[in-house]
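Dear support,

Our group has been running a series of protein-ligand predictions, and this particular one with pyridoxal-5'-phosphate is the one our PI (initials K.S.) wants archived with full inputs and outputs. We had some confusion internally about which version of the output was final, so please treat the block below as the authoritative record. The input we submitted was:
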Amino acid sequence: MNPRRKDDSLADFYEKLGVKRVINAAGTLTRLGGAPMVDEVLEAMHAAAQWSVRMEELQEKAGAYLAEVTGAEAGYVTCGAAAGLQLAAAACLAGLDLRKMELLPDTSNIPNEIVTQRLHRNAYDHALRAAGAKLVEVGHIGNPARGYTDPWHIEAAIHKNTVAVHWVYMDVRGAVSLEDTVAVAHKHGVPVIVDAAAALPPAANLRRLVATGADLVSFSGGKVIGGPQASGLLVGRRNLIDSVALQHQDMDVLPLTWTMRHKFLDSGKLPGPPLQGIGRPLKVGKEQVAGLLTALRIYVAQDHAAMRNEQIRRIKVLQEGLAGVPNVKGELLGLEGEGYPLVRIVLDEKALGLTAFDLVNRLFDEDPAIAVGQEGVADGYVTVNPLSLDGDKPSLIVRRIRAILSS
Ligand SMILES: *Cc1c(COP(=O)(O)O)cnc(C)c1O
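Confirmed final output from the archive:
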């Protein structure tokens, strides 16, 4: 099958393979392959695929653009925010020390602690441990206020084995702010790694987080930015980004012909090129770089207020479309503030004889299937995220829900 044939549309591809297509009303979830990409991004990836390039040169130029957009010293394209966290940890563990680069993830004889607030623990911090870091948790455990954390908790945990402080952009009460975290860490010369995978919207966070002085900030490219699913951007201090590049790029190189020989060898910064590093399995394709840069360019130029109004219009179609249905209620959330607007579809499960779990599964029955947010299923509701619901998708979802509830 030649994938370039005109009649091989994407829909045909999945149909022939026997894979159900999904209308994504759940947001930019990785397990759904993220959101569909716009033509301009796909065209950039197509164009980039036509030539080979030196990846280190492509990363250098791409990084300059990422730095410009975020206000950071330097930037790097990763294969996702989680990969960015692993690379960030590797950079903080090894710096420009070739021996340490070679040892990772074995950190038994080198400083290896990353301090994190108990409130910020989440399953993605596995990426930090994958580089060889040991997480040191701080903050109240139980009473008087679960998880409540003070700056001094972080400070007291910093000592000679500390290589970084981890901070996550998430909606939790009682956590130390990024500004205070940076102040405490920098007082002791320790860098701060920020998990900013879920920090957009608002677009202003692209610059805000870096402006706090945070040393490495990892964003997803495949979420709201609309880049390839396996893309991300890591931005921050030049010396740390250099360490990332050295531990990520393919290192089957010779000192006398290595593209980076002037920067690292002639300058005396390194005695030679490192070996393949801990980041080598986190490969980034040239197409991902092209797609991410294009998506980011479109994202920063977007009229974000108009976009938000459009998203609110979409969830109102859902709310109004379900208005007459007995035992179902559409509640709009997030109309204020800077995050996503959402609609929560609350079921009277007893009266309907149908649980929110059932509704999630029934919405998957047809092709295309419909995926909704499941975070509230135990409480009897599902959510709809309007991000990918262009065209008549909102009314199609209404029709499908009505059909399920009346069957
Ligand atoms: C989505 C997410 C990640 C992972 O991002 P990827 O780009 O999918 O690797 C990490 N941390 C948080 C808080 C997230 O929401």
